[in-house]
Amino acid sequence: MRALIFAAVIAVSGCSSMNPLDWTHKVEIQQGNYVTQDAVAKLKPGMTRSQVRFLLGTPLLTDAFHADRWDYKYSDIKQGKLDSSSDKLLTVYFKGDVLERVEGAAQPAPPAKQLDASMPAQEAKKP
């Protein structure tokens, strides 16, 4: 009986997060709005809320006490730890229904995908 209990304790301790030999896969978690500098550059004072929403997407945070402010927050967790270089907050301020100003930092534009030169070009369709 003791051997069975000892085996059960060993098996359960293998599931513990305190295990120094923890080789479990850590999921990369991206949360929030990935707002690029290119999108922010297109914002102009005087734009309507719907135009801003079209460019940046729906804000992650809207505050009932600050109806004239939208917060676009983004964070990235890699290997179970917050990547501080990707932790950004962009705040958009409105006056009524019109964009007044933008504060904060945006993400850099994602790198452009390069075409592989070894891939054949798509053939033109013949009628």
Automatic annotation (TrEMBL):
GO terms for molecular function: protein-macromolecule adaptor activity. One of its GO terms (biological process) is Gram-negative-bacterium-type cell outer membrane assembly. Residues 32-102 form the Outer membrane protein assembly factor BamE domain. It comes from the Bacteria. GO terms for cellular component: Bam protein complex. Residues 105-127 are annotated as: Disordered. It is found in: Cell outer membrane. The keyword Signal applies. It is a lipid-anchor. Its main location: membrane. Keywords: Cell outer membrane, Lipoprotein, Membrane, Palmitate, Signal. Part of the Bam complex. Part of the outer membrane protein assembly complex, which is involved in assembly and insertion of beta-barrel proteins into the outer membrane. Belongs to the BamE family. HAMAP family: OM_assembly_BamE (MF_00925). This is Outer membrane protein assembly factor BamE. It comes from Chromobacterium sphagni. The gene is bamE.
